[in-house]
Amino acid sequence: TPVVMAANLDFTGEISTKAEYHEKFGGTSEIELSANLGNDLKAGLSLGSIKQAFPWNGVLGWPLTVKGLWLETNGAIIPGTPEFTTRIGTLNVNYSDFIAHGIKTTGISMDKLTMGPVTIGGYYSLNQAQNRDRGAYVKVNPLEGIEAQATVVKAEDQLSYAVSTTVQPMEQAEVSGTYAVVHEETDAYRINGKYQVLEGLEVRAGYQDVSAEFKPTNMNKDQKVLKTGTGFTVGATANQFGFDVTADYADYDKTVDYSVARTLSLAGMDFNTKLDGNYNFNTSKATNLEATVAYNAPNGLELSVGYDLINNQPKVAAGLELQF
Question: What are phi and psi of 275, to 5 degrees?
Fold first, then answer.
């Protein structure tokens, strides 16, 4: 919601800060501001700090650094031609979890140029080491429920390709797959399917081959999204009687991840309770088992109390987020 208007400028933004005690007492703060300059032109600034223990040391005692600065516009170059989004400055490219994710280099990008069933985009940039990082994608939606995309990225001298597709043969079912390769190195692929058996019950299955040698520069590093390993996966999510129960088994590391969550209402307050953990059938051990209770206070304060049952370590967190 705009709160400041001066010289036809509309400012919006978000400020978030979080303090946490686990093994140490620390926290983070982030600020993101954007200004609509009119005629589909937008300017943005992002500030943030890394997670670190208190007290924060520094010249001003607050180690907040500039993480991004950009200008963005939406429209056509020539009247009557398709519109698209152009961004100059700090980029935020996310074309593919396999080869083009979280690219926050500095340069220029164009996105969402649509011509019939075809959408294209691309970027050209430099990283902090002044090495070139560039790429492009082509997305095609030939029929309702079918989408295919080809992505190519060249980060310095490393050339990577990815082809992905998603098919929804019926409303309750979806099948997706991705094949990616680093030129003259190695390749990887993943196939996933999910089916809504009935309301509140979904089942999943898949197979992947992502070796440890597959290392594109811009690969998604989040192990919850893309994990190294070769083998099948199965899982299910059930939402019944107020409980959200999820379980996923990965054959490539013989591990099952599970969680049980429920919202409890006490004295007019809603508490989000959750128990999540895992179990490895090779080692017959669990490496994670944590219980948490979270509460969003009317004043905007987000409180969370948890206990790490593996390491016998309590965890307390408090955070605030302001959007304007």
Answer: -125, 120
pLDDT per residue as tens digits for the range 292-314: 999 988 877 888 999 999 989 99
Cα–Cα distance between 111 and 92 in angstroms, integer? 11
Residue 50, pLDDT score: 60
Nearest Cα residue to 150 out of 195, 192, 119, 185 = 119
Give start and end residues of each alpha helix (H) in the chain. Answer: none
Structure tokens given for 198: 């009935």
Summarize the confidence of residues 101-118 as an average pLDDT: 94
Q: Residue 169: count other Cβ atoms within 10 Å of its Cβ.
A: 10
Please give the residue that has the higher pLDDT: either 270 or 23. 270
Query: What is the amino acid identity at position 23?
Result: E
pLDDT score recorded for residue 120? 97
For 147, the 3-state DSSP assignment is strand
Burial of residue 214, with CB atoms counted within 10 A of its CB: 0-12 exposed, 13-18 middle, 19 or more buried: buried
Per-residue pLDDT at 38: 67
Whole-Å CA distances, 166 to 31, 145, 207: 35, 8, 15
CA atoms within 13 A on the CB side of 268: 2
Using CA atoms, how far apart are residues 108 and 39, in angstroms rounded to an integer? 19
